[in-house]
Specification:
456 residues, Heat Shock Protein 90, Ribosomal Protein S5, domain 2, Rossmann fold, nine-stranded mixed beta sheet, 13 helices
Amino acid sequence: MERKQFKTEVSDLLHLIIHSLYSHKEIFLRELVSNASDALDKLKYKTLVDGKAVDGELRIDISFTEGDKRTLTISDNGIGMTHDELNENLGTIAHSGTKHFLANLTNDQKKDSNLIGQFGVGFYSAFMVADKVEVISKAYGEEQAYKWVSDGREKYTIEEAEREGCGTTIILHLNDEGKEFGNRWQIENLIKQYSDHIAYPIYLAYDQNTYDDKYNVTGTEHKVEKINSAAALWARSKSELKEEDYNDFYKNSYYDSENPLFYIHTKAEGATEYTTLFFIPAKAPFDMYHADYKPGVKLYVKRVYITDDDKELLPTYLRFVRGIIDSEDLPLNVSREILQQNRVMTTIRNASVKKLLGEFKKIADQNPELYTKFIDQYNRPLKEGLYQDYANRDELLELVRFKSTAVDGYTSLAAYKERMVTDQKGIYYITGSDENALKSSPLLATFKEKGIEVLL
């Protein structure tokens, strides 16, 4: 057995990671599953280059033990790590095998190798919930497996081990704060939240009680179930999808009993590659006018959930929009939680706003009945955009609608201008809290006599 010192001031850095870097301890599972997905991507790529077939199903397995000494195990049959790679990848903070791997790919190969984990600290989030971590790994094409063990302080050990087939198994010896994660329902919920759309199947092994006719426990049955969808609807071609697919996805994802008014599915290619799938709910969200409203857009990086609590993904006047932004190359900061203010995110945000406003305009022109339903719910937020978003002010002016003394329903400013009487120099409006009271206001008498339309 080799005893080694971490290559950096790990005691200080691990303290930072464990206590400061992540705001929610539960994301350790997201990080470890993401790393497993990376390893599967690498093996898939390696076998393609070598002209060999993958042996068996590429998958991620999770299991746990209950009792006083709870453990949680995450295992993959991916590329695995050699002795030196274990030492280099796990013995150095902020070094990433994935980052090194990316550096050796050509531009075209990068597109085909859907890798995440640009930074090398995600693994260490395991020490937020574990007082000891074991990593047993066998590299693709190697005969010998190795075991890396650490308590997350200053030292770690590496020794020879046994493992059938290539891949990596991580065993977390859960501490008091982490014991809640050695639970079937907790694991399933976290996988659904963070890793449901990972490209590979995730299986959970657990023991379930069996019962007789009188509901007495008669024993246990070992089960292994797939717990993620392993498919991202937004990553599929629009030509493959039906309206029913979009509606079902929306209702399941956002717990809405109604279909959305409409959806907008876009795949952008070029210098910045990303996919967006936006939904407009049939009814305005209940918290739309609350200062602490919850954003409705989820951010993914290569199908890995990052956050649904970033109000900067879209401007506040579009806070009613629900959906997905999935970036192929969005750089994240070291914790993968707080987005950097960078060119890529700015590009995605600006393009998404343009796309949404453009689609709203198209619906207004081509489907007035649907647009009226949209305006009934979201006219007020769009008006907020007139003073929030000067860059898109002209587009928003075409979208907002007003009640009027001249027509039933809504009118646009453009339609109002077409109806202006000769020599009318301005647009007239009256404000108040009750539409019917405004229509009967004596202040309108003079305007009616002159045939001048007034907005309400």
